[in-house]
Design a protein that fits this description.
Pfam families: CCG. The protein is of the alpha/beta class. Helices cover about 45% and strands about 10% of the residues.
């Protein structure tokens, strides 16, 4: 299969190592990957503010960049949710429908599409607190939200359990929002900060040695809150880096 790799703009600008890990991981798994160099923002910041007209140009460019790929894969649930759910304001041409239907967040692509069974040679001997973002849980369905009945499932956890040495710790409120919420953390700073402090305190209470998430935007917020709390020794790592065997050497952070 031929995959177009979607690297969200904030990852490209702030966490390029996450984009590199995603590319390397997919290639290790035998996926043919291309990175369209004209890609920019998916339009989420403007859509979050209700400015659909300003989002339109970036959305149309996204479709133009990725319309010819069998799958589009990105390491960020909120950005993938933007494409799948919020491109409904565009004219629903065959190209738009194709891009919306074929854009996947990295975890769900590995879990549901290529159905990875193992990550040989990868070791991560740490107690891990797993954070799935609200967009990933409630927008993409990578885990069962606690407010809904039914059998529990967690695709991120399924993948991490394939990595030797990983011990997932139990959190008191595992699917609670961390308070980032894109522009919410700016418009409602006090509430956002309190939510972030609650998440970080939960990690500390659980005995976690590392926080892992498919969403680097949530980790950016949580790490900033942790530093303000004086907690500087708790690493925040994207799941692509763990599954790819980094950012550590020989399993050590």
């Amino acid at each position: 299969m031929k995959v177009g790799l979607f690297i969200p703009c904030y990852i490209d600008a702030i966490y390029p190592e996450v984009g590199i890990a995603t590319l390397e991981l997919l290639e290790k798994l035998g996926v043919e990957v291309e990175v369209p160099h004209r890609q920019t923002c998916c339009g989420q910041p403007m859509t979050n503010e209700g400015d659909f007209e300003s989002a339109r140009c970036t959305e149309e460019l996204f479709v133009e960049n990725f319309k010819d790929y069998e799958y589009i894969v990105g390491p960020a649930g909120s950005c993938v949710k933007q494409v799948r759910v919020h491109y409904d304001k565009l004219e629903q041409t065959p190209d738009v429908r194709h891009v919306r239907e074929r854009t996947y967040e990295l975890v769900e692509f590995l879990h549901d599409i290529i159905k990875v069974k193992e990550f040989p040679g990868i070791e991560f001997p740490y107690k891990v607190a797993l954070h799935n973002s609200c967009s990933s849980i409630r927008g993409l369905g990578i885990a069962k939200p606690s407010e809904r009945p039914g059998e529990p499932f967690n695709k991120s956890a399924d993948l991490l359990k394939m990595v030797k040495g990983v011990e997932l710790v139990e959190l008191s409120r595992p699917d609670e929002c961390c308070g980032f919420g894109g522009t919410f953390c700016v418009t409602d700073e006090a509430v956002s900060t309190k939510m972030g402090r609650d998440k970080v305190s939960d990690y500390v209470s659980s005995g976690a040695e590392c926080v892992v998430s498919p969403d680097m935007s949530c980790l950016m917020h949580q790490q900033g809150v942790a530093r303000k709390m004086g907690i500087t020794t708790l690493p925040f790592v994207h799941i692509a880096q763990v599954l790819n065997g980094g950012p550590f050497k020989n399993g050590k952070l």
